[in-house]
Amino acid sequence: MWRVIATDKDGRELARKEMDAGEFTIGRDQDRQMVLASPSVSRRHCRVRIEPTGVSIIDDGSANGIVINGARIPANTMTPIPPNTRVEIAEFRLLVEQVGMAPPPMAAPPMAAPPMAAPPMMPGMMPPQPLPQMPSAVLPGAALPQSGMPPTAGGPTDLVRLIAEGGQYSGRVFDLPGMAEITVGRGVGNDLVLDDPSMSRKHSKMRRIGGGRIEVEDLNSANGTYVNGRKITSAQAGPGDTVRFGELMFRLDGSGGSGGAKASQAIANLMGPPISPNVKKAFLGLAGVTALVWLIWIIKLIVPSGPPKGAVEQAIAAKIQEAENQVRIAKEAFNKQEWQKAKDAAEAALEIDPVSLEAVRLRAQSARAAEDEGKYKAGSVELDKGTPDGIAAAVRIYDQMSPDSAYRQEFADKLRTKLIAAGEDYFKSKKYRDSAEVLCYAFRVAPANQKPGASTIKTLRDAEKRARLSNPCTVK
User: How confident is the model at residue 183 (pLDDT cuts 50, 70, 90)?
Assistant: First the structure.
């Protein structure tokens, strides 16, 4: 079954459709099967076609079109929209999810071979004695499982980090505790305490689901929980996704878990029933002694006289210094806004010292800054067009930029000025609907201390009245 959810620009759910196959219509008219009440949406905007293999969307020649992953699609053309695709219809978003998938059937256990008949006993022969049971073969370096059950996916060995982006914790890295379920909030009783006024005492809950991924659940918080900019009640997130609690933004970084769980599962499949503790201890003891003998022999062969005194310490100190040098290069490049150089140096530091939190922070910030720089340039090009479509595209790009990015703040100033001027020009040209929409954008993107003045508010209200808009813009 497939689920299609429509949300507004703040991530609030407006409508949803669930079906295995079929088609439904979207538009501003009340006879549409999914109604999006906005002047930016055409009366008969598009159709969504659902088949067992996937979901597609067809633009029915709408005025403002459909944007998929930042690019407008051609009209009257069926375009696939796989899960996690960003679909924009004016100021609304469509989310596609696949639900209700049945687990694959379990394979039937192999049939046991019938027991072989024993040969007939001859006079004077001794009855055959049972051979001692030996442990099954194991992979080198792998731990023996304690039972026939596989390890739990997403357990304490699954490394998951939250890297703060902006706000009072900017740049800090939070390693999630080694628990299957972690609570987040302002209260001291939470597993992860974030002392910020935008946080509720019990804000959210995170569950490990393996592979470096988590499931995030909002606990009826006052300011909401968001995944990739979408307000959620419950959603999954993986490495590279953003998770926001109130006003605190984090990027998820996960290792996908250690290889121990997969190795243990493979060994369990090979070994079958559990081995008795006595045999296991004897085997481990023999393997340990054998490995020690081989190690001593190899060391004597390669280094007959042993390393000079202090050589190991010097080698470790040299590696630490090399990693610190790369971090220093990354910082200098970041301050000069040389994003790619900063990212490369941070990755070089992590190859030497994989647990360097400073290198993790610099790598994440450099990658985000490079993305925001590209979005700033693309948004400026759209804004300079001066058309309603160009302005709407510029606002969409602004919404995709990092909340605390310097590029976003600079773009907001540029956007606000252009929007007010365009809105007033549209009003003079009697394009009242366009005027109201553009001026409403100006209020939304402007910082709290730079909101448009009383004359702009008057123009906005006059444009809404003359365009006969039923939903006035919220000015705050």
Answer: very high
Closest CA to 203 of 155, 236, 244: 244
Helix (H, G, I), strand (E, B) or coil at 335: helix
Could you please report the per-residue DSSP string of 363-385?
A: HHHHHHHHHHHHHHHHHHHHHHT
Cα 255 to Cα 242: distance, rounded to the nearest angstrom: 16
Tell me what the mean pLDDT of segment 369-388 comes to.
Answer: 86
Cα distances (angstroms) measured from residue 455 to each of 276, 400, 431, 449, 465: 85, 30, 18, 17, 15
Q: For strand 204-210 and strand 181-185, is the pairing parallel, antiparallel, or unpaired?
A: antiparallel
Give the whole-angstrom CA distance, residue 432 versus residue 451. 21
The order of strands in the sheet holding 225-227 is: 173-175, 160-164, 248-254, 242-245, 225-227, 230-232
- The length of the chain is 476
Task: Retrieve residue 147's tokens.
Answer: 């039972």
pLDDT of residue 289: 59
User: How many angstroms separate the CA atoms of 341 and 377, rounded?
Assistant: 20
CB-neighbour burial class of residue 208 (10 A; exposed 0-12, middle 13-18, buried 19+): buried
The radius of gyration computed from the CA coordinates of the chain, to the nearest angstrom, equals 31
| pTM metric for this prediction | 0.36
For residues 395 and 445, is the Cβ–Cβ distance under 8 A?
yes
How far apart are the C-alpha atoms of 423 and 430, rounded to whole Å?
11
Q: What angle do CA 410, 244, 94 make, to 5 degrees?
A: 85
Note every long-range contact of 125-130, with CB atoms under 8 Å and residues 24 or more positions apart, other chains counting: none
Dihedral pair phi/psi, residue 232, rounded to 5°: -130, 160
Per-residue pLDDT tens over the stretch 276-317: 555 555 566 566 657 666 676 676 666 555 556 666 667 777
Q: What is the rounded CA–CA span in Å between residue 435 and residue 214?
A: 43
pLDDT digit string (tens) for 242-266? Answer: 899 988 889 888 754 444 444 444 4
Q: Residue 305: what pLDDT?
A: 56
The pLDDT, as a whole number, for residue 390 is 84
Has residue 452 got a pLDDT over 90? no
> Given the structure tokens 């998929």, which residue do they identify?
68
266 Cβ neighbours under 8 A, 6+ residues apart: 139, 142
Q: Using CA atoms, how far apart are residues 64 and 66, in angstroms rounded to an integer? A: 7
| Residue 94, φ and ψ in degrees, nearest 5 | -115, 135
Give CA torsion, residues 326, 331, 332, 334, to 10 deg: 120
Residue 340 to residue 348: CA distance in whole angstroms: 12
Q: In the beta sheet, which residues pair with residue 248?
A: 245
